[in-house]
Description:
By secondary structure, this protein is α/β, with parallel strands linked by helices. Helix content is 37%, strand content 23%. It starts with a strand and ends with a helix.
Amino acid sequence: MKDISIILPTHNGGSYIKQSIESVLKQTYSNFELTIINDGSSDNTEEIIKLFSDDRIKYVKNKKNLGLQKTLNIGINLAEGEYIARIDDDDYWNDEDKLKKQIELFKTNSKLVLVGTGMHAIDGAGNKKFDLILPETDKKIRNQILSRTSFIHSSVCFPKKAFLEVGVFDESERIKHVEDHDLWLKFGRIGEFYNIPSCSVTVRFHDNSVIGKNFRKQQYKEMALIFKYWKDYPNFLQAVALSFLRIIFRMFVKPR
């Protein structure tokens, strides 16, 4: 049995998915399975996936495009590992010890339910945009998690039992594009957070990314999450004010 199940959903990810897969297979912590779910791609995604012959790879193909939320739930329900890790098809892990560090943290602190890392941000051409180190401790994360997600989706690792306890990714339209933040807020109700203070993941910001295409819609849905979880976390009024300012800002400034 594998310790970690890594979930990689993809839809028309042929441009970047090869680098994502390679970064997973280079991990020094090797007792994992990589489940790649092809969500109705019409490009050369499948051809690229089939170039890899590693027996740790499990390839699943949806009969039609189901969307990210449903595809993530399919992948996690198929997972056999004690822990779940996530990576998107346009991101990659640049720290070969990433999984090793996360598993060591879970083994030493049974209260942890979500461990992430910081990130390098690049554009579609691979040019550096910025580095981001996120709040490290549970207390610091809780103080700001209503205002922002506080975790990089392609960096996270969490126990499968915690996921099953809080429920699956919400598949409703009202949560679409903020399903990760919603899940993190659920996790915080049952355990502790932690971010490794290193840029272990490279995240690609480009015109076709979820972030690039849906930035404005996300702001309204983030505001809804604040009101959904306001009793569970501090700094409610600050979170509302910041979310409102982002909405106003994005009315006049096009995201880059």
